[in-house]
Amino acid sequence: MVISCVERLKKVRLYQLNSWHSLRLIGYNTFTMTYHSRSIAIVSQQLPLCPPLPRVIGPVEFDEFRLLWNHLDQVLAAGVEREFILRCVALKQKKRKRRMIIAEQVAYQNECRQALRCTLARKLLQESLRTFCCRLADSPVMQRFCLSGDLEAVRIPGHSQLQRYESWLPVAEMRAVITALTNQAQADDAPSTLGLEAPLSLSTVWVDSTCAETNIHYPVDWILLRDAVRTLIEAIMVLRSRGIRYRMPEPSSFLRKMNQLCIKMTHAGKGEKRKQCQKAILREMKELAHTVQGHATRYCALAEEMPEPRGWAVAAQRRMQAILEKLPQIIHQAHERIIGERQVPNSEKVLSIYEPDTSVLSRGKSGAQVEYGYSLFVAEQRDGLIVDWDMPRSPESDIVMLSAGVTRWQKAYGAHTIRVVVTDRGFYSKATCNTLKDAGIANGMCPRSPQQLAARLEEVEFRELQRRRSQTEGRIAIVKQTFLGGRLHTKGHAHQSAEMAWVIFAHNVWVIARLSILSKQKIAA
Q: Is the dihedral of CA 409, 411, 413, 418 positive or negative?
């Protein structure tokens, strides 16, 4: 009986707006949009027919949780979801060099919609890939939001598919999707489309910078040697377990020896004896590293000589080659700093063998004099919506990032949309003052000179803008701790930039949904 009802509903050619409690019916008609001077046809498809959510009586926290996901669904359905699908379809057709047939495009658009919603939900819940799979399989609210269930069955993507969803769109395209959402929030029809009390204003932005930390341990020189030896030995053990063998001692003995040396290094003592003991232990570590390097080189050659290379052999070989390329530099760095007692320039330091793009950021913060990661530039408007961000591969000064940000704002939102920029004294310079003046933007930056600051504090408007700047620190903490989870969890700058783009997108959708809830509560009151 249920199946026959579903089959009849699939024949309906109607389009109905997304609603949290109603059946979602959508026809098969198409509409055309222009993208990069090309006409892209988006095919409307039927969304899953979800059963009604159970009525839960009791905890008010669950009612608030359910209400939030209801408004998140409405924000996506207001237009940003369609923008995301449009860009996905355009890139797909560009790669295939032909238009997809209707059935292919309908299936791909459904997958794009699920990629958007699953990634957004995981960023908001801050759960691991495997934990989120279980949450999605267990929660009717999450199933409805992520479009994973219908009247027949519940289909949950695996953890590998969830990971692929996070790189569904390039960073440039994700930035365009976020810009479209911001432009929609500041449009005159924002109260009707997004449920806001009034359109959000971008006239004043507050700018700050921070460190997006990479997922590495504290960069100690002899621990880098331990990491290199451990990675090489583990790759060798993979090859030996598959039948590729070369005469050598038991690989686990090298790991045991390196662990013993690390324990000795930790308990080396104090004073001058500590230095002498550390130098002697490091010489043993270097000798062990050279021995493992020779074994790894031989195993790389054996893996290359395989008549039919397997995936596991290629992966192990690449893993060893990546470490073998860095091992001489790691040994030289440890020798210079511990035995030679000489400094190594930051540009030549190896901070992590797994995250080569990590940089040293000396920001002088309380409790974190030195941080390891990327410079993160964030600009927010008065209601907390992030209007711009940047995370360059190499560390850049606040002055350079602000000048680049002004160019992006004018291109994304128009030349006269942003009228005032407020920063701390780290952004203040003659160059940035001239940049803002040329762009027609009022200067709300905190001057470096105490005399100039005292003069500016006489202005009532400047004092209010600077007082509001403390909220930007809280906004950065929300982005880093709540949405990012403290540090970047992906590897490589390309994947980390994509992760940060999804974090900003999830944060902005969350902000708009919460503003929509407050607006409806005010109307009800």
A: positive
- CA distances for 511 relative to 50, 115, 124, 235, 500, angstroms: 27, 20, 11, 45, 16
Calpha distance 268→245 (Å, rounded): 37
Average pLDDT for the chain:
86
Rounded distance, CA 369 to CA 374, Å? 15
Q: What is residue 158's three-state secondary structure? A: coil
* Cα–Cα distance, 323 to 307 (Å, whole number): 24
Q: pLDDT tens across 463-487, in order? A: 999 999 999 999 999 999 999 998 9
H-state helical runs in 373-425: 398-413
What gap in Å lies between CA 111 and CA 118, rounded to an integer? 10
Contact between 10 and 77 under an 8 Å Cβ cutoff? The reply is no
User: What DSSP string describes 303-371?
Assistant: HHT-SS--HHHHHHHHHHHHHHHHHHHHHHHHIIIIIS-----GGG----SS-TT-EEEEEEETTEEEE
Find out whether 373 and 214 touch, Cβ atoms under 8 Å: yes
Which pLDDT does position 85 carry in this prediction?
93
Which structure tokens are listed for 143?
């199933």
**Angle 16-20-23 from CA coordinates, rounded to 5°:** 45
**Rounded (5°) CA angle 117-119-125:** 100
Between helix 398-413 and helix 430-438 the angle, nearest 10°, is 10
β-strand pairing of 204-213 with 30-35 = unpaired
Domains of the chain with CATH codes = 2-169 (no CATH), 191-216+357-524 (3.30.420.10), 221-348 (no CATH)
Return the structure tokens found at 181.
Answer: 């959402």
Structure tokens at 187: 């449009």
pLDDT above 50: residue 23: no
37-41: list long-range contacts, CB under 8 Å, 24+ apart. Answer: 38/90, 40/86, 40/89, 40/90, 40/93, 41/99
Residue 17 has pLDDT above 60, yes or no: no
**In this structure, are residues 329 and 322 in contact, taking their beta carbons and an 8 Å threshold?**
no
Strands 420-422 and 204-213: parallel
